[in-house]
Amino acid sequence: MQLGLIGLGRMGGNMRERIRRAGHTVIGYDRDPGVSDVGSLAELVQQLQAPRVIWVMVPAGAATQSVIDELKELLSPGDLVVDGGNSRWTDDEKHAVELGIKGIGFVDAGVSGGVWGLENGYALMVGGDRENVERLQPVFQALKPEGPYGYVHAGKVGAGHFSKMVHNGIEYAMMQAYAEGWELLEKVPSVENVREVFRSWQEGTVIRSWLLDLAVGALDDDAHLEKLRGYAEDSGEGRWTVEAAIHNAVPLPAITASLFARFSSRQDDSPQMKMIAALRNQFGGHAVESSK
């Protein structure tokens, strides 16, 4: 299968490589000429055979809208656009209408896997018409982890990103729980090796998880996270999850508290947020701030 891929950053660049390893042709475009296969979006479209498939991996909001606006003038009826970034589900509905007027299909794909996806595969949550989703199956199969899990056609347009948003909200709460436990262990004088306590939880306990493994990896690099400032950003999905909960009258006390804890980290140097920052860096390569 032939695919155009727009956005070759931490995720997009690795996705291009994984799809190519599966035997497909990927032509990538990025504003950085050092990683781009072509010089412009127009050149990308020209090099693809109709009907074209283009996967967009750029930041949510204005950047994605700009790409959609340009693509709807470059593409033809029967072409298909996939938004694999972290767009808000309401933007997906808007983009599907905008492209649909031109006869261009649209699918939204929530993608999880971070910097580890190249080797481990990416979990995919997809929204869109069944015909368009079926057309993309070779790419989904190339990207997903081996085995029966890691892919779902979640529903209509917007369902993929809504599912990924909830996934990230749960992630917020899980990281917050690990961070709170870590700070309490660090505080008690009788516990002399917090890192090894965390390591002991990796097997045989009900709280073992990949996040726990990443926490141990972070502590192996910096046993007391002394190199980090207790500051953690939020990427937007946590806020959208809480807003959706309010709109649907669904109580989310743990996720909401974890979001507010990140806001607090921007006022003080929070020990818990050192662990949150370390975990975000471990799984997604997100930037951290030095303690000095």
UniProtKB/TrEMBL annotation:
Keyword tRNA-binding in annotation: no
Gene3D superfamilies associated with the record: N-(1-d-carboxylethyl)-l-norvaline Dehydrogenase, domain 2, NAD(P)-binding Rossmann-like Domain
Alphabetized InterPro entries for the sequence: 6-PGluconate_DH-like_C_sf, 6DGDH_YqeC, 6PGD_dom2, 6PGDH_C, 6PGDH_NADP-bd, 6PGdom_BS, NAD(P)-bd_dom_sf, Pgluconate_DH
Keywords: Gluconate utilization, Oxidoreductase
Domain 6-phosphogluconate dehydrogenase C-terminal: 160-287
Pfam families xrefs: 6PGD, NAD_binding_2
Taxonomic superkingdom: Bacteria
Keyword Methyltransferase annotated: no
NCBIfam families linked to this entry: gnd_rel, PRK09599.1
Family designation: Belongs to the 6-phosphogluconate dehydrogenase family.
PANTHER family the record matches: 6-PHOSPHOGLUCONATE DEHYDROGENASE
Name this polypeptide is given: Decarboxylating 6-phosphogluconate dehydrogenase
